[in-house]
Amino acid sequence: MLGLGAARLEADMNRLMALLFHQGVLDEQFMQLQQLQDESSPNFVSEVISIYFRESEKLLKNLRSLLADRECTDYRKIGIHLNQLMGSSSSVGAKRVRTVCLAFRAASEHNNWSGCLRSLEVLEHEYCYLKTKLHELFQMEQQRVMAAGARYHPLLS
Amino acid sequence: MVVCCKGSALSRLWKSKDQQVQQLKHYQPQNSKGGGNWRKKFLFLGILLGVLVSIWIFLSMNANIIARRKETLANMCDERARMLQDQFNVSMNHVHALAILVSTFHHGKNPSAIDQKTFAEYTARTAFERPLTNGVAYALKVLHSQREEFERQHGWKIKKMETEDQSPVQDDYTPEKLDPSPDQDEYAPVIFSQETVSHIVSIDMMSGKEDRDNILRARASGKGVLTSPFNLLKSNHLGVVLTFAVYNADLPPNPTPEERIEATVGYLGASFDVPSLVEKLLHQLASKQTIVVNVYDTTNSSAPIKMYGLDVRGAGEIHISNVDFGDPLRKHEMHCRFKHEPPLPWSAITTSLGVAVIVLLVGHIFYAALNRIEKVEDDFREMRELKVRAEAADVAKSQFLATVSHEIRTPMNGVLGMLQMLMDTELDATQQDFAMTAQASGKALIALINEVLDQAKIESGRLELEAVPFDVRDVLDNVLSLFSDKSQGKGIELAVYVSDRVPEVLIGDPGRFRQIITNLVGNSVKFTEEGHIFVSVHLVEEVKSSCDFSNQVIRDSEDGIGMSYNTLSGFHIVDRWKSWENFRMFKFSTEASDAINLLVTVEDTGVGIPQDAQSRIFTPFMQADSSTSRTYGGTGIGLSISKCLVDLMGGEIGFVSKPGIGSTFSFTAVFQEGRKNLGDMRRHHPDPPVSDFQGMRGLVVDGRCMRAEITKHHLQRLGIHVDISLNSKSALSGILEACNLSGAGHLDMVLVDKEAWGEGSGLAFPRLLAEFRQNGLMKPQENLPKMFLLATSLSPTEVDDLKSAGYTDTMMKPLRPSMIAACLRKALGVGSKRQREKGQAMALRSLLSGKQILVVDDNAVNRKVAAGALKKYGAEVTCADSGKAAIQMLQPPHKFDACFMDIQMPEMDGFEATRQIRSMETKVNELIKSGEASSEMYGNVAHWHIPILAMTADVIQATYEECIRCGMDDYVSKPFEEEQIYSAVAHFFESGTVDSVS
Question: Enzyme group, top EC level (chain B) (predicted)?
Answer without folding.
Answer: transferase
